Amino acid sequence: MAGKAPEDDFTAEPFVPERGGLAALRRAAAECRGCPLHRDATQTVFGAGDARARVMLVGEQPGDQEDRQGRPFVGPAGKLLDRALAEAGIDPGEAYVTNAVKHFKFTQAEPRKRRIHKAPSLREMTACGPWLAAELAVVEPELIVVLGATAGKALLGSSFRVTQVRGTVLEEEIHGRRERLVPTVHPSSVLRADDRESAYGGFLSDLKVAARVLA
Fold this sequence. Notes:
single chain; 8 helices
């Protein structure tokens, strides 16, 4: 179709470089037009952390602070995640953190009003999948910690339910690689919980399972 924009194909595949490490991937991702989410987001928020990390943590998508700063997990949920990782016995500085979707999806009532997070669609998650596959191929983590339902659906399919498998060790083929995964909730859900102490305790318990796998 004449005049068709790349984002209409809903795939990041043409933007992913064939070779190069994380730095090359990050540069290429900054120019990604693989789905319409790039239009409203401030910038691509690629993964960050140790390129040789034994554990990769995969969340849903960047939030408002991440979109502004260009780094994943820099907002309140990221601070809670770092605290829980350290308590569980996993050094946050030795992990690699990323998201299933690399652009912030939001709704906004008026231009200067607060931007409200909106969950990405399965089509948007699938479009962004080649970036996550490339990150996994470079980092080659021993374990993936799946943070929340959206990340779980992106990695394990639309039937994924975090409540059914959280805190367990799964072995699945992900993007052509056999991976071990520990699913848990997204740290933002802990912040939203009515009983935050109990929610944090459950989150910490799941991360301790991950720590035992890495021990």
